[in-house]
Amino acid sequence: MAEVHANGVCFNAQVLEPQGAPADAPTIVFVHGLVTDNLSSFYYTLAGPAVVAGARVILYDLRGHGRSQRPEAGYTADDGVTDLCALLDALGMRDPVYLVGNSYGGILAARMAVTVPDRVAGLVLIEASCAGTGAAAWIEDMANTLSVTALRLEHDGARDQYRMAGQRRMARLITHVDGLLNRTSLVDDVAAERPLRPTELAAIRCPVLGVYGERSELVAAASELTRHVPGCTVRILPGLAHTVLREATDVLRDILLSWLAERTAHVLTDTRRAG
């Protein structure tokens, strides 16, 4: 892991280089979800197989998450795009990258594909709703859930209870979540977030892959992609809900690497056996 200073924030980031790959190996940036998530959700699932397949991988903790610095403000999707662009600049990554966003990380990734399209070679959305009324409802639900959680953490003393019970790991997690929800603008920033307009979604010109669980409350987002994004690829995984990354890691790995191989065939090889 390395500390990378970008956009006034110290980020925890890691660059994984493929062995023997050419200089033009594709770069994949994995963007995780909110609050309790961090780069480890990709490190132990998709990152390793992608490197074995010949891709360069960038993992990082969003501002305020994991081991990255926790500023008091700056938690909108637009802020996240600015952070990521600055992080890529600090790492010397000038060529377009493939973005893989899980859950709220997909909102950030999609916003980057819309606002700075020259930096995005391809977009992968895992369980993310980015446009239309469905996205607006999801964002509102997230904001409400985070607000309730923040209030509970402020008043129920859960951190001290876990610490007294000797459950230090859970106590540390609660301390982190409490700090993020009650000591930053994250809740307000999420509540004020706007989904992409369908016209913005339709303006995305890079290749797009969407993966959703059949039983997920966000599965309708697959129809939004199919309706508005020309030539996108959508996969619906039967029997799964919002936990696609965790519960269908092998299937998701094969879908992702096969999709990437079709677009970078001169670099990625033997993807079906990778990992």
Describe the protein's architecture and organization.
This protein has 275 residues and is α/β, with parallel strands linked by helices. 45% of the residues lie in helices and 17% in strands. It starts with a strand and ends in a 12-residue tail after the last helix. The protein has 11 helices and 8 strands. It has one domain (2-132, 194-273): Rossmann fold, CATH 3.40.50.1820. The model is unreliable at 270-275 (pLDDT under 50). Helix 1 crosses helix 11, helix 2 crosses helix 3 (104-115) and helix 4 (132-155) packs across helix 6 (168-182). An 8-stranded mixed beta sheet has the order 1-2-4-3-5-6-7-8, sandwiched between helices.
Helix/strand-derived class?
alpha/beta
CA-based gyration radius: 18 Å
> Which sequence of SSEs, written as H and E, runs from N to C?
EEEHEHEHEHHHHHEHEHH
Portion of residues within helices: 40-55%
CATH architecture assignment = 3-Layer(aba) Sandwich
From the spread of the alpha carbons, the general shape counts as: globular
Number of folding domains? 1
CATH topology category name = Rossmann fold
- How many strands? 8
What features would you highlight for this structure?
single chain, 275 residues, alpha/beta, Rossmann fold, 8 strands, disordered C terminus
In short:
The protein has 275 residues and is of the alpha/beta class.
What is the strand and helix layout of this fold?
Elements: E1 2-6, E2 9-16, E3 27-31, H1 40-52, E4 56-60, H2 77-90, E5 97-102, H3 104-115, E6 120-126, H4 132-155, H5 158-164, H6 168-182, H7 186-191, H8 198-202, E7 208-213, H9 220-228, E8 233-237, H10 244-247, H11 249-263
Parallel strand pairs: 3-4, 3-5, 5-6, 6-7, 7-8
Antiparallel strand pairs: 1-2, 2-4
Helix pairs in contact: 1-11, 2-3, 4-6, 5-6
